[in-house]
Amino acid sequence: MHQRRGTFRDETVDYAAVGATRAHDLMAYPPEHSIPAEDAWRIGSGQARFDTAADLLMSWAALRGAGLRVADVRPASGPMYTGVAFDDQGNAVAPSSMEHEQRFAADGTPYVGAGTTLQVHGRVSGLNADAELRVIFVDEEPRRVAFALGTVGGSVVSGEESFLLEWRDNDEVWFVVRAFDRPTALAYRMLKSLVRRRRRMLFQGYLRAISPLYATPEA
């Protein structure tokens, strides 16, 4: 897998804290008025497991696994801002090249790419989950794959979620999802427990898609 990093600089998302799902202290200090969430699961071990899960993740399988229909996937038309990458100690490193061939799933849908916009349609916990989303960043490295989605509009919440797959030094493969949601729909503003339930259901769907043998409990 080629090393590739990309961050899309654009002002069309409907929240200010773009990229905040990268913050180590997200759970303690989430963006104002938002509800943070994160979970991590060991989904196997070895390169074959990592490669299979990475391909699923980058072809939108997590969203589909949560019962959402992915539509109108549009890759960014302009150049992507590569940004500044950081190593594990927080030191800045040179961004890698963004030149790559566009990949497509079997049904012709473009793979995840920085700046890509998409529509999702469906219901979560019986409530509308339609939204327009934008891919905020993409990281693809030999042992790590990650990307984040930010809301553009039309969603019952405003915010961001990130997906990370890691093939760790001990050979374990981990799937990590982080998010923050600011309620926008009246029902969610009135009942914050609905936001947490929605997020829990989404996380379970993502896990089922990336690790089909993993049995998640019923909500």
Automatic annotation (TrEMBL):
Domain of life, per lineage: Bacteria
Database matches in InterPro entries: DUF1990 (IPR018960)
UniProt domain DUF1990: residue ranges: 15-75, 109-209
Protein name (database record): DUF1990 family protein
